[in-house]
Amino acid sequence: MLGKALKHLPREKIQVATKFGVVKWESEGQRLYAVKGTAEHVRACCEASLKRLDVDYIDLYFQHRVDTSVPIEETMGELKKLVEEGKIKYIGLSEANVDTIKRAHKVHPVTALQMEYSLWTREIEDEFIPLCRELGIGIVAYSPLGRGFFGGKVVDEALPNGSLLANYPRFNGENLEKNKLLYTRVSNLAVKHGCTVPQLALAWLLHQGDDIVPIPGTTKVKNMINNVGCLGLKLSEDDLKEIGDAVPVDEVSRLGFGCVGLSGVYNAPLSHEEGCSIIKEAFNRGITFFDTADIYGEKHDNEIMLGKALKQLPREKIQGATKFGFVKSESKGRPLIEVKGSPQHVRACCEASLERLDVDYIDLYFQHRVDTSVPIEDTMGKLKKLVEEGKIKYIGLSEPSIDTIRRAHKVHPITALQMEYSLWTREIEDEIIPFCRELGIGIVAYSPLGRGFFGGKGVEETMPNGSQLANYPRFNGENLEKNKLLYTRVSNLAIKHGCTVPQLALAWLLHHGRDIVPIPGTTKVKNMINNVGSLGLKLSEEDVKEICDAVPVHEVSGRREMRLLSEYNWKLANTQLK
């Protein structure tokens, strides 16, 4: 087909690339693949391609995949001969590793690498692109729209019957639902830039350097014309970062770990050795997201403890979140809490947290509560600067109002909200969650077990002396007795599902969407392991409804927050206008 098209075009103005190396056949109804890179196979494939294309030479000839059973020097040796014979002009490799590239380049200069590269596939940025630039090798970016995902496949369009995309994990089930949130974020940015999603995704790639050549494909002329429109889109460095940040490639675990309890809030504080041990065990169980705050523990003990744990774990695989904004004081022997969100306070808190955590950057930095006396634009402006300086990666808000979210998001994209969300606290379902999904903002669900209630606190276990739970209305007197009935209902359903109450309560939350990340905390390894068990619990829509109905929110007795924090409820969190 391409050969026929070339007959209608000026050959001298066309650069043709083709590839060799992947061999397919069928056996017992199954399609099988292999890779061949022998010298004989290289020559046979090249001559066959020249004949099919009906051309005298191939401009750029790629080895489609590396044959690891054949020294790359042998494959390259034959390709070099084909260059000398004038049958090919330039040599390329596809999906080669760093060592193979270096060895191949010594035999004959490699002109280009064909590698998968898009907004959601960026693994080549750390090693491959720098090496290629050092050697003068270009990058041909295949699947630059993420196999059509950023062209709207399965988001704006249904997947065609029999499409191979069904074989790709990113296009299936829960993965797809989670990835749709990324598409929403990019879609919102495309509106901001007055372009389409494919144009923005391709322009982002083009702005990575003149040595990056994306090769989007399509079966529709209108899509091709739309793609070409990306060439006229100009993006600043800030734009590029904003677009890249909209599709974070760091994978956050489905379940996080709330570290607050390790420093003694609901129980006695643990030693740093004990706390680090639990954090490390949580990581070993698949948890990679750990949440703390500068107010947790005496003298910021919680951040210091998490920092020590991070030294014993692979930092690049951890997403650490901390928070700023709360300031503790006393008046006439009574504890007081106020909130500060001034730009000066933001910077001072961030730099202090970096020092206590002993890290170069904070993955996700939350404003712990909204300072209504400071325009959110001022607070966000300083947070945006901290992102630009590399001190924080992503920005979050905790307990903000709809208006505050909207205004904050205009200054810089909000990655996540931290909101109380559990079986007995569901206020955010009507407004906050739909609005966040519209903007592509995730939800970090704190107190996902109702401050331990659905873990048995105050029901199967007595509250420790001095526990702050005594300050929460739901854990006191008649309120607690009424709420125990709700626990009993959930306990009966847990028996039905063959799991524990905490597992059922967490699974119920997890089934509300991939954008919901609960962060249960505990001081006991056995409880953490039990919580992780929620990830394997499958619930149907009927199950989710039955669990929900077991805890009607109008039957929950008592306010969710202690009096000290009631004025910082998200419903009251509108800030002054700028």
TrEMBL record:
* Annotated signal sequence range: none
- Keywords, in A-Z order: NADP, Oxidoreductase
Superkingdom as given in the UniProt entry: Eukaryota
> InterPro entries annotated for this entry?
Aldo-Keto_reductase, NAD(P)_OxRdtase_dom_sf, NADP_OxRdtase_dom
Q: Which molecular function term from Gene Ontology is one that the record holds?
A: oxidoreductase activity
A GO cellular component annotation in the UniProt record: cytoplasm
Q: Where is the NADP-dependent oxidoreductase domain?
A: 1-243, 254-547
Query: What's the protein name?
Result: NADP-dependent oxidoreductase domain-containing protein
